[in-house]
Amino acid sequence: MFDLLVTNATLPDGRTGIDIGVSGGRIAACGAGIAAQAAASAEVIDAAGQLVTPPFVDAHFHMDAVLSYGLPRINESGTLLEGIALWGELKPTLVQDAIISRAMTYCDWAVANGLLAIRTHVDTCDPRLLAVEALLEVKRKVAPYLDLQLVAFPQDGILRYDPRADDPACTDTAFDLLKKALDLGVDVVGGIPHFEQTMQSGTESVRLLCEEAARRSLRVDMHCDETDDPMSRHIETLAFETRRLGLQGRVNGSHLTSMHSMDNYYVSKLIPLIAQAGVSAVANPLINITIQGRHDTYPKRRGMTRVPELLAAGITVAFGHDCVMDPWYGLGSGDMLEVAHMGLHVAQMTSRVAMKQCFDAVTAAPAAIMGLDGYGLEPGCRADFVLLQAAEPVEAIRLRAARLAVVRRGRVVATSEPRVSRLRLAGRPDAVRLTRQ
Ligand code: FE2
């Protein structure tokens, strides 16, 4: 007797005709023929041969800024730097309730999209730590249905930002504020070395932040080299500090866009260093393709990091959403299949194997980067999964497939109707689903 039984599912690894039995919020059985042997289950979902996947995971997001598009104005140049300046204008006007309300709305969108785990950066360059307290509250509120992991992110640089600019009475340094955020319960140490004033201070910031993470036994996730400047090489320092401090497997480099513009010879040295250090990478295709290359005329660089080459070296690579309707990006809806779709195009990952890797980049890879416990469809894993209106992962990306059912800890938390259009054409079928079958 299962609490929930899913029948006739196709799994992301290609297995078909699979039944999934759920008991006590965990997967109790997963394989062929389980339904035939099972006694009556409390709830049954017939997958009808469609894809059941572990939930989507976003390993790079900014939930303190989400849905603030247009406040107080729109980013006209579209550059990273105008986005940072705009966020700086918005920050003093923020109130906690509004941050919480916008974040809660986005979490609703996420659940509707089968996105059940998000690592969000939260800006610590604020003497009030307003966004930190707001997102800690959101994390508590959504915990029953969404795993939220917070990164202490010094948006204006731990060495560059002087809190007295915002509050003359403040006696904390930017680094102190980041440590206070960690004391309050923020999970991961962030950074932004390419935004510090000099290459040297960027290097220094990586060292200080990695040492802080080692002292606290925390993970690290830095915005690293989010620039078209090929000389921005802080990822090299991040890999070095990871090995020096024994942080292998716990450090992630986000964006790494300068790698797009680096000299090939240097990259041939750099990628093995990243692999040896066990540092993972998150590219953010929607944002990288719109923000990078803004100083170019033609040809315009794509500005996304070298995803196929990193994967070929055995490095874990995820695709993140990064922004939804905020000072940096005016679009987005929390749909990780849209993120995978863009990543596939920008990285030209068009082989069958590479397209499947793009699906993994919004599911298993970010789950590994976040260190999610019990992620997957094997017996014993948490009963979190999504039924898609697609036959397999590549079709799911192609169609940004409808999420027919989203299950969290064995309970259906969201449903969508199948996408069907009705034709009124003589001699042609009356229903079109855009699927191959
Ligand atoms: Fe970011």
What structural category arises from helix and sheet content? alpha/beta
Number of discrete helical segments: 15
Compute the separation of the termini in Å: 33 Å
**What would the CATH topology of the largest domain be?**
TIM Barrel
**Secondary structure: helix percent:** 25-40%
Give the domain tally. Answer: 2
Report the CATH architecture of the largest domain: Alpha-Beta Barrel
Q: Rough shape? A: globular
| Cα gyration radius (Å) | 22 Å
Return residue spans where pLDDT drops below 50 for at least 5 consecutive residues. none
Overview in brief:
The protein is an alpha/beta fold. The protein has helices at 34-37, 80-90, 96-112, 130-142, 174-184, 199-216, 234-244, 258-261, 264-277, 285-291, 307-312, 336-346, 352-360, 364-370, 393-399; strands at residues 4-9, 18-23, 26-31, 43-46, 52-53, 56-62, 115-123, 147-153, 188-189, 219-224, 251-255, 280-283, 317-319, 385-388, 403-408, 411-415, 421-422, 431-432.
What does it look like?
The protein is α/β, with parallel strands linked by helices and 437 residues long. The chain folds into two domains: 4-54 and 376-422, Roll (Urease, subunit C, domain 1); 56-370, TIM Barrel (Alpha-Beta Barrel). It has helices spanning 34-37, 80-90, 96-112, 130-142, 174-184, 199-216, 234-244, 258-261, 264-277, 285-291, 307-312, 336-346, 352-360, 364-370, 393-399; strands at residues 4-9, 18-23, 26-31, 43-46, 52-53, 56-62, 115-123, 147-153, 188-189, 219-224, 251-255, 280-283, 317-319, 385-388, 403-408, 411-415, 421-422, 431-432. An eight-stranded parallel β-sheet has the order 6-7-8-9-10-11-12-13. Strands 3-2-1-4 form a four-stranded mixed β-sheet, with no helix packed on it. Helix 6 links the parallel strand 9 and strand 10 (219-224). It is globular, with a radius of gyration of 22 Å. The two termini are 33 Å apart.
